[in-house]
Write a structure and sequence with these properties.
A hairpin with a 3-residue loop joins strand 35 and strand 36. This protein has 20 helices and 38 strands. The strands form 13 sheets. Strands 15, 16, 17, 18, 20, 26, 29 and 34 form an 8-stranded mixed beta sheet that branches. Strands 2-6-7-10 form a 4-stranded antiparallel beta sheet. It has a 4-stranded antiparallel beta sheet with strand order 4-5-3-9, sandwiched between helices. The protein has 2 domains: about 120 residues, Alpha-Beta Plaits; about 475 residues, Peptidase S8/S53 domain (Rossmann fold). The two termini are about 40 Å apart. Helices cover about 25% and strands about 25% of the residues. It is an alpha+beta fold. Keywords: Calcium, Hydrolase, Metal-binding, Protease, Serine protease, Signal, Zymogen.
Length: about 650
């Protein structure tokens, strides 16, 4: 079996308009390059077109062209590969700018131009990003656009039918401008919080509060009485013991002197985090949390953002539990193309954190669909690559959750009678888990045996890839019990994200590693979202960035707990977004022992994995009972797309990571 390869250079739910930069006010303006979005081709399909309110606040990100961009990958490997003369000579934002950014003279020309139009600007120190904000009427004057709103298939769109124009003298220095066009998809795809899931296998009499956010379901049990105490089996100590982090604690390494970062798109309570650590009997550093709130456009609205708080709560509480003496820096933005770039750029610009985690993602299919419809620009993938490259060069270890629907992502299906939406649920990658300059965290299920009543018995004998297929036999016998409990039924369709990207090529550190670009798979889920019993084993090849890189316990059935004042203690919380902050915390612990930054993990860990004496990984390579609902292990091979290189022995990683 061979899957077809396709490439898109952008992954964002917001459409981007490729513009050439601004210059002096007195200069003749020129068209900002070609129009790769094809927005004008779509104008006839838009309904309800009207001018954007003149006083509406708009925020854009002007991205300048980097210098020596073809040298970025070489420099990432140089500072992160043992034996290289530049190993551990990490860049600062200033040295990154000196090598790759535009100089102060070039960047300085933009502020007076935008000031003329009453637009505020903020220049980042990397010499590549300029945040521009102000009223829509002033944006239109500065860029010669005509910002409008409309609907495309009932989905809100912001766009300009006029190509952006700016003064010619500065035009050649801009790569793109983010935020002029945006698209809010209500078609069942796009944004996912790649975790913060709660499992419940109780009877249908239990009341559940179901919050669904695009392709991942975020569910929290609601009971009449708030739980007042944490449960030991859901404590973060399980991660510490299972993956041998305790020996580093025994040496006195708790993350002291380190700051770990969380990129998120929702708020949280500092008091909830403090109560969580207190309840778990974790001695933490006081006043350790700081929040950097960033303004950004918000296509998904306030209601969606409110639901993101569960994700942020999980990220902060888990990362802080694993590294109890580290500071925590939260970068809180809005989920949009501008918001994501702004959050990471700010983190790297500050250069305070030694590790960073993100627990959100986007379906590659949705982005491809938007691109084909003229609603997205290929440049966004390039922009994110530049942003993440800066972090890797600065020695910041960035972890991104791989997703919670296995290898599957939602796409755009057809319609019957123009009313009934057909599902499209198939094998698609996840962005930015697919980015080559991050370490992507997948999920496993720990051994457990439990009788949930109603004849339901679940049994997992050894740690395996997280996939709901271990529940299929029970589902076949007790279908009505599952169908009457949507929380339980959803667990059938969940698993650790993983696959092969068709956005980014295979990075150098994965090339030649056994199991990369080959795969074993079983199609456990149909396009109609129905479990398949006993699917046959498939094998094939594909090419691109393989993810995840590493894995750990993420199954809500064997998961963790969080604390929120409004709910009390909530158990059976899981998802790969529990794993990403845990790895960030573990990195802070290791850094506190080594006295310096680990840097970008991947160049070293893929080499260590190939050394039988030094490898810190337990490879989960079985082709049976080891699936993320599609990909399985590859017996005898180092890598598989269900769990990456496998689970980590952090003591051994500490001893062998240079």
């Amino acid at each position: 079996m061979r899957k077809k390869k396709w490439f898109v250079g952008a992954v964002s739910f917001a459409a981007l308009l490729l513009v050439s930069p601004a210059a002096q006010a007195a200069s003749k303006k020129k068209a900002a390059g070609k129009d790769p979005y094809g927005i004008n081709k779509l104008l006839k399909q838009l309904s309800g077109k009207q001018k954007l309110s003149p006083n509406k606040q708009v925020q854009l990100e002007v991205v300048l062209k980097p210098r020596d961009q073809n040298q970025m990958a070489d420099q990432i490997y140089a500072v992160n590969t043992p034996g290289n003369q530049d190993f551990k000579h990490f860049y600062s934002p200033a040295s990154f700018r000196a090598k790759f950014g535009q100089n102060a003279e070039v960047v300085g020309q933009y502020r007076p131009y935008f000031k003329k139009y009453h637009l505020k600007t903020h220049n980042y120190s990397n010499g590549l990003m300029i945040k521009v904000s102000g009223k829509a009427k002033n944006v239109n004057k500065a860029f010669n656009t005509n910002l409008q709103t409309a609907k495309y298939r009932d989905n809100p769109v912001q766009f300009s039918s006029k190509k952006p124009k700016m003064p010619a003298e500065l035009a050649d220095n801009v790569l793109t401008v983010l935020g002029i066009t945006s698209f809010n998809s209500k078609m069942g795809g796009g944004l996912t919080q790649t975790g913060a899931q709660a499992a419940s296998a109780k009877s249908s009499k239990n009341k559940t509060n179901k919050k669904t956010n695009k392709k991942t379901k975020v569910q929290t049990k609601v009971t009449k009485k708030k739980p007042t105490k944490p449960e030991k089996q859901f404590a973060p100590q399980k991660f510490v013991n299972r993956y041998h982090l305790q020996p580093l604690y025994d040496k006195g390494y708790y993350g002291q002197g380190q700051t770990l970062g969380v990129v998120t798109f929702g708020g949280f309570s500092k008091r909830d985090a403090q109560q969580y650590w207190k309840g778990e009997h974790i001695a933490t550093k006081p006043n350790r949390i700081s929040v950097k709130k960033l303004s950004a456009p918000s296509p998904f609205g306030a209601a969606a953002e409110k639901s993101y708080g569960l994700e942020t709560t999980l990220d902060v509480q888990q990362s802080g539990a694993i590294a109890p003496q580290a500071n925590i820096r939260v970068y809180q933005s809005k989920f949009s193309d501008v918001g994501m770039v702004d959050a990471f750029t700010t983190a790297f610009d500050e250069n305070r954190v030694s590790s960073l985690s993100l627990s959100y993602g986007l379906s590659e299919y949705i982005m491809r669909y938007l691109k084909n419809q003229g609603l997205i620009n290929p440049v966004y993938g390039q922009v994110m690559n530049i942003v993440m490259a800066q972090g890797a060069m600065q020695g910041i270890s960035t972890f991104v959750a791989s997703g919670d629907t296995g290898a599957y992502n939602i796409g755009i299906g057809g319609k019957i009678l123009n009313a009934i939406q057909l599902p499209n649920y198939s094998i698609y990658g996840t962005f930015p888990a697919d980015n080559p300059w991050v370490t992507t965290t997948g999920g496993t299920t720990l051994p457990f045996h439990k009788n949930y009543g109603h004849g339901l018995k679940f049994s997992v004998d050894k740690e395996r890839a997280w996939g709901g297929d271990y529940m299929f036999k029970a589902f076949a016998k007790h279908r009505n019990v599952f169908l009457s409990n949507l929380t339980l039924y959803s667990q059938l369709l969940n698993g650790g994200g993983g696959g092969i990207s068709h956005v980014y090529g295979t990075p150098q550190y994965q090339q030649g590693v056994s199991g990369v670009n080959t795969f074993n798979a079983r199609e456990f889920i149909s396009n109609a979202l129905q479990p398949r019993m006993n699917p046959v084993l498939l094998s094939g090849t594909d090419y691109g960035r393989n993810f995840p890189d590493v894995s750990a316990n993420a199954d809500p059935m064997t998961g963790y707990q969080i604390y929120m004042k409004k709910t009390g203690w909530v158990s059976n919380i899981g998802g790969t977004s529990a794993v990403a902050p845990q790895f960030s915390g573990a990195t802070a612990v290791i850094n506190s022992g080594k006295g310096g930054r680990m840097g970008f993990w991947n160049p070293q860990i893929y080499k260590l994995a190939q050394d039988k004496d030094k490898t810190p990984f337990t490879t989960l390579d079985s082709a049976t009972d080891n699936s993320n609902l599609y990909y399985t292990g590859q017996p005898g091979k180092i890598y598989n797309q269900a769990t990456g290189l496998g689970t980590v022995d952090f003591e051994k990683l500490y001893n062998n990571f240079q």
